[in-house]
Amino acid sequence: MSRPILETKNLWVKVGENDIIQNLNFKLNPGVHILLGPNGAGKSTLLGSIMGLERFKITGEILWKGENITNLSPDKRFQKGIFLAYQLPPVVRGVRLKDVLKKILNINQKKNLPEEVYQYLKDLDLDESFLDREINQGFSGGERKKSEILQVLLAKPELALLDEPDSGVDIDALKSIGKAIQKISKECNLLIVSHNLKVLDYVKPNSVLVLIDGKYIYTDGTEIIHIIEERGYDFLRRKMYVEKLSLGN
Ligand code: ADP
Ligand code: MG
Fold it and tell me: Which CATH superfamily is domain 6-246 in?
């Protein structure tokens, strides 16, 4: 078995007064992985904690390829090769999409964007005028998701965390986002939160992880997705306690 690229040790995450994740020992191997779990299970919290977002108060450790990154800023984690595409991409007033893309590409703000940006915009069916707009300001749900995916395409991170990249998007957007994710999966390790099984038309995950009751179930292959689809999380929860499912911690 390959060495995990990412690991959490006794990860405890508080949001305000609430303990959202309690003592999670999580391991992620290289490859493509789907992360599932009922609403409120803490999937976005886990991804945000891995990225180091400030609102999550963390104890325990987060290791990136064996290095303790628990106290690093999101920016430093980005430089190490981790990128988070948000479930709810925030509006950032005064910052244009092209400013963010230049920062990602590490090019001077005065310089022009490279040709590949315009190709990706076409692939994602996003008009070039988006580049001059404040990031996510007035973007539709689908446009926000596309702008996140555009950033991932350009960042080419070693690990992309995609938080529901396909939620709230129409059928055409789903197709272009799906194709973009397929492209990303060839270059990056991926952890994708998705409730939309359409994503499986575009990527073949190595494993599925299910976050449930503060633990996670690890399975090779995607069979568990169909069990969840047919029987729901409650079934899985019961099964988890009586049968030997591969519990991560
Ligand atoms: P998921 O992504 O699995 O649906 P989240 O990580 O978004 O779950 O949320 C996990 C839990 O944390 C939920 O019960 C949610 O209500 C709670 N939570 C998230 N953000 C906050 C917040 N800012 N204040 C209080 N509770 C929060
Ligand atoms: Mg979420």
Answer: P-loop containing nucleotide triphosphate hydrolases (3.40.50.300)
Report the C-alpha gap between 29 and 12 in whole angstroms: 21
| Atom of ligand 1 minimally distant from the CA of 163 | 2
Is there a contact between 150 and 168 (Cβ–Cβ < 8 Å)?
no
Per domain, the residue ranges of the chain are: 6-246
pTM here is: 0.94
User: Could you say which ligand is closest to the alpha carbon of residue 14?
Assistant: 1
Over residues 204-228, the pLDDT tens digits come to 999 999 998 878 888 888 888 988 9
H or E element: which one contains 32? strand 32-36
CA of 210 to the centre of ligand 1 (A): 16
CA of 12 from ligand 1 middle (Å) equals 14
Q: How far is the CA of 167 from the centre of ligand 2 (A)?
A: 10
